[in-house]
Every structure is written in C-alpha cells, then in structure tokens.
Write a structure and sequence with these properties.
3 helices, alpha+beta, 6-stranded antiparallel beta sheet, 103 residues
C-alpha cells in the first residue's frame, strides 16, 4: 500500500510540544522495512514548559512522564484513499525498559 500523507502531533503530559508530517507519497513494502521521512517542527522550550517544574517526577517517577503522538495518515489501497487516525502513548519508563531490553 501507499502512504499519501502523514500528520503527527506530539504531546508531553497532555501538553502540545511538536508536530510533523509529510505530503510525499511512500510505498510501504510487504515483509520488509520502509523508511518514513517527516518534516518536524520542534522547540525545546515547549518541552520545558510541558515539564513545568516536575523535574523530580521525571527522574523519580518516569512512568508519570508520558509522550503521546496523535497521528493521521492517508493511504491509498487499490486506488481508494483511506484516512486513518490513531494515538500512540508511551511513558519514559517504558522507553527505558525497551532500551534496557526489559519487557
């Protein structure tokens, strides 16, 4: 299938921090890997504002630091455009566990 358009909005603890996306069509290969490129608008100050003064929570309770990505993609399948909306959330603790190989 082909991704026709991608739009992403990133939130830290439910506060908007970034957006990204692409209008460049990408063919997603079956049983293989596909590189998705996106233009990202990111301002570190927005992340700091989202954290407010909760640095201790970030360090001591990483499960309380949640990154949420709301995304909308448009795909073309057999010539028909299909919009797909979804949300993906992950905590800092889950990211650390993935990196450490823990599940």
């Amino acid at each position: 299938f082909r991704l026709m358009k991608q739009r992403y909005q990133v939130y830290v603890n439910d506060k908007f921090v970034s957006k990204g996306g692409s209008d460049k069509p990408v063919v997603v290969q079956p049983n293989g890997s596909t590189i998705l490129t996106n233009l990202v608008s990111f301002n570190p100050t927005d992340v700091l504002r989202a954290l407010e003064k909760n640095w201790t929570t970030l360090l001591l309770k990483p499960e309380g630091f949640v990154i949420r990505i709301d995304y909308q993609i448009s795909t073309s399948l057999f010539g028909f455009s299909i919009p797909i909306k979804n949300t993906y959330s992950i905590s800092l603790k889950e990211i650390r566990d993935l990196k450490a190989g823990n599940k």
